[in-house]
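The protein record filed here:
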Amino acid sequence: MAWMCGLGWLCILLAICCGATVIASYCVALTYGHIYPFLPAISETGVLYPEKYVFRELTNLSAFLFISNAFVRFMQYKLVAEQCREGHAKFCRLNTVAFLVAILAGLGMTLVANFEIEKVSFHFNS
């Protein structure tokens, strides 16, 4: 009967996936010697090969889980609002706006994960 627990596991899975993203890309970057072992910036763990691919895939999975969580919350509020019909029109619009912002945030996560910024070096001739 463990499979009948509902969608509450989705939030837990999102938290585990986000933590795994940071830890896995840190471990791969540390193994290849691409970062300092103590307190590196998270952005440094997703720059070089091969840890950038681990970072990309797990961040994309986290973005999908984030949008899935937002959709479940959106539908949950919609079902509750239908049962309580007193003055919920303003809150339904707010729910829709919150869902759209969550979709934009999830898409922003995928943009952060997948677009590379190349280092540009400037040479000044004097």
Observations:
- The CA atoms of residues 29 and 51 lie 6 Å apart.
- The two ends are 75 Å apart (CA to CA).
- Helices lie at 9-31, 51-83, 89-114.
